């Protein structure tokens, strides 16, 4: 029930007392509290007038989501206004309205069936509201935290966060604080139980003396220890195991003490992963001293730090030298001033916090506008995983334009992800014109932005279109999410004349070959021009290109070879992965899946080898020959690891679940024993290990099999 009163009603008696000797509020306070109240009243009244008829004539098909969408757009209006004064004054009011609307929409979604026509409308309204609140948060200048210098000036904290510093050739996790006049690098002191935590200053640089100079060719770079990718992946496996153990112990009686021990262990492992994963260098230099090197996981993060420092350096800054007492006071204040309290790992999160999304995010990058000059432009996509961000996809370069039209779709795997970042770059073809740091992307970032991956808004069958605004540039994109179970579901194709979703023995019999034509052609093309491609099989190909290749192979199009030669190599690699993923049963078969899981778990090396080789010989001929062909190919790809960055373990991680994940009938047999998430995490680990075992211990009979077996059919 809504009741509306004129906004003037409470103001009249307040204004009447404002001029007396004992005012309830001063005139200025009244103006502040009731600023633009008439505008807010009109927005609410318009919403009420539109909502009332729907309430009075309520039935099961009535929708109200479109009304909330209009309300959100009305509220967002002032923020986009050209009148800066109105914009600044109205933001506080808009935030209050949006918060109330978001809470209301969350409640409505809880009680609205997913198949009701109002559900997607309410989801979209919630997305608009949350994106507006996120944009406000990003624009707020954090001036709420400050300390006073000995001269009586305010030294404000602008930004802080955890970064990995390379110090004495080893990685150290530091807490870095950016103040209005200096950058301070600190570490947390070890304190005894019961004592307050304190920071210890490692070094500081006045912003007046700070530069971003990269190394000259004559300088020797700091030695950076980079761990093999498989060690990082193995740590992720250990963390996943601990997560499952924690969930089981929470349900067990008297399991709380063990939960705390497991949490502590997981925190140590996640901290190790966070420290050893970053590879993107961020160098800063003191004009009167030494240089320092940080390693970041994301180009987005590096750009944020650089932009924040450069923005402060535009002011008239004076170099400052802190006495030991001043430095101690400033360092001590960091504990209270900090805005980032814990390293970004899941073990530091509350149980109530969302665990993030696990599955596949489909993203279409449509277009961008707002560029002042023509340029060669492309976008990259990043998502967070295990506390740090990873680049997952890249559009093609759109040349010499101010309005690129990419319209490219990508499928991105999510592992507990909560945010999607989009970065827009201008390609620089003349690399000699730029100072190049180790592993540094030399292309210029034109803009960057991020959106929250809220489960309620993205988990829908429908595409959600959105726009990210970045430095005057607007990038238009769409996204939808598919859970892991649905996206990897194996189904038999109704059209048995094609190759996707058709049993491998049916395809090879029809083609009169031992290895399907699609497998041979994709492998040949990758080895011809993609074996040196960085991230081959890991970087997503454009989904529309993959679907075009899929349709061509399914219909046996005559110009398939021409398509393959013209297509982006990541799309061809993606097509090969899709073929194996869509087989109605895994390449290593449902029948043998339990035996593979048991064999890889054997501890005795000799017993494991006997078991794994026996299982291999037990495969049907088409499955065996296809698997051996793929193994040889992946080994050749891994030989180029120094160039393509794809190790055997990387390839095992990519292909393991694709080749071994059982069909739904097989999975259903184990679901009564444990939860679906437990099945997924444990099985994926074992599936990766199975493929990795065969990559590291290839069957001796490779050459013999190829000599004595009809490998290629001359009739295809």
Automatic annotation (TrEMBL):
The keyword Zinc-finger does not apply. SUPFAM superfamilies: C2 domain (Calcium/lipid-binding domain, CaLB) (SSF49562), DBL homology domain (DH-domain) (SSF48065), GTPase activation domain, GAP (SSF48350), PH domain-like (SSF50729). The keyword NADP does not apply. CDD domains: C2_ABR, RhoGAP_Bcr. Its main location: other. Keywords: Cell projection, GTPase activation, Guanine-nucleotide releasing factor, Synapse. It is found in: Cell projection, Axon; Cell projection, Dendritic spine. Residues 339-468 form the C2 domain. GO terms for cellular component: axon; dendritic spine; membrane. Residues 156-314 form the PH domain. GO terms for molecular function: GTPase activator activity; guanyl-nucleotide exchange factor activity. Residues 502-702 form the Rho-GAP domain. GO terms for biological process: signal transduction. Pfam families: C2, PH_19, RhoGAP. This is Active breakpoint cluster region-related protein. It comes from Scophthalmus maximus (Turbot). The gene is abr.
């Amino acid at each position: 029930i809504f009741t509306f009163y004129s906004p003037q009603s409470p103001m009249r008696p307040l204004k009447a007392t404002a001029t007396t000797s004992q005012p309830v509020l001063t005139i200025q306070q009244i103006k502040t509290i009731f600023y633009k109240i008439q505008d807010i009243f009109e927005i609410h009244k318009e919403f009420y007038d539109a909502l009332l008829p729907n309430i009075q004539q309520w039935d099961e098909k009535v929708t109200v989501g479109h009304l909330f969408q209009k309300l959100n757009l009305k509220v967002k209006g002032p923020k986009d206004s050209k009148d800066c004064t109105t914009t600044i004054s109205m933001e506080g009011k808009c935030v209050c309205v949006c918060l109330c609307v978001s809470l209301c929409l969350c409640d409505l979604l809880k009680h609205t069936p997913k198949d009701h026509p109002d559900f997607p409308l309410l989801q979209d309204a919630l997305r608009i509201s949350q994106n507006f609140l996120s944009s406000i948060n990003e624009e707020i200048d954090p001036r709420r935290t400050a300390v006073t210098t000995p001269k009586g000036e305010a030294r404000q904290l602008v930004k802080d966060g955890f970064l990995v510093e390379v110090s004495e050739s080893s990685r150290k996790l530091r807490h870095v604080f950016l103040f209005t006049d200096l950058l301070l690098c600190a570490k947390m002191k070890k304190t005894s139980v019961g004592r307050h935590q304190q920071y210890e200053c490692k070094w500081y640089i006045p912003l007046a003396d700070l530069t971003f100079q990269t190394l000259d060719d004559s300088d020797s770079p700091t030695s950076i220890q980079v761990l093999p990718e498989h060690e990082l992946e193995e740590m992720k496996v250990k963390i996943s195991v601990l997560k499952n153990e924690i969930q089981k112990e929470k349900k067990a009686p008297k399991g709380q003490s063990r939960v705390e021990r497991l949490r502590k262990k997981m925190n140590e492992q996640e901290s190790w992963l966070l420290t050893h994963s970053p590879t993107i260098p961020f160098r800063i230099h003191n004009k009167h001293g030494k240089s320092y090197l940080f390693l970041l996981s994301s180009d987005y993060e590096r750009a944020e730090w650089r932009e924040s420092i450069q923005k402060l350096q535009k002011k008239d800054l004076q170099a400052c030298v802190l006495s030991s007492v001043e430095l101690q006071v400033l360092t001590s204040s960091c504990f209270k001033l900090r805005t980032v309290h814990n390293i970004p790992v899941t073990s530091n999160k509350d149980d109530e916090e969302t665990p993030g999304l696990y599955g596949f995010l489909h993203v279409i990058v449509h277009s961008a506008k707002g560029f002042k000059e023509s340029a060669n432009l492309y976008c990259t996509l990043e998502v967070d995983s295990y506390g740090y961000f990873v680049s997952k996809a890249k559009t093609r370069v759109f040349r010499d334009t101010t309005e690129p039209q990419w319209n490219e779709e990508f499928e991105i795997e999510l592992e507990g992800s909560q945010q999607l970042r989009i970065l827009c770059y201008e390609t620089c073809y003349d690399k000699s014109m730029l100072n190049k740091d180790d592993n540094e992307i030399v292309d210029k970032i034109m803009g960057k932005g991020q959106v929250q991956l809220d489960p309620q808004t993205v988990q829908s069958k429908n595409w959600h279109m959105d726009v990210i605004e970045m430095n005057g540039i607007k990038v238009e994109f769409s996204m939808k999410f598919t859970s892991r179970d649905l996206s990897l579901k194996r189904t038999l194709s109704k059209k048995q004349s094609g190759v996707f979703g058709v049993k491998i023995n049916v395809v090879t019999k029809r083609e009169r070959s031992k290895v399907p034509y699609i497998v041979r052609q994709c492998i040949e093309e990758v080895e011809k021009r993609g074996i040196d491609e960085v991230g081959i099989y890991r970087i997503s190909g454009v989904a529309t290109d993959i679907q075009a290749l899929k349709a061509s192979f399914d219909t046996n199009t005559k110009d398939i070879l021409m398509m393959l030669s013209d297509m982006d190599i990541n799309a061809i690699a993606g097509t090969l992965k899709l073929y194996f993923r869509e087989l109605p049963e895994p390449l290593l078969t449902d029948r043998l899946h339990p035996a593979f899981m048991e064999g890889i778990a054997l501890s005795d090396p000799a017993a494991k080898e006997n078991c794994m080789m026996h299982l291999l010989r037990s495969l049907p001929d088409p499955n065996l020959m296809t698997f051996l062909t793929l193994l040889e190919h992946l080994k050749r790809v891994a030989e180029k690891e120094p160039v393509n960055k794809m190790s055997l373990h990387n390839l095992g991680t990519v292909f393991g679940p694709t080749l071994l994940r059982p069909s739904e009938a097989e999975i259903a047999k184990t679901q009564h024993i444990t939860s679906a998430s437990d099945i997924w995490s444990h099985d994926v680990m074992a599936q990766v290990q199975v493929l990795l075992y065969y990559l590291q211990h290839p069957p001796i009979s490779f050459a013999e099999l190829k000599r004595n077996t009809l490998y290629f059919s001359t009739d295809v």
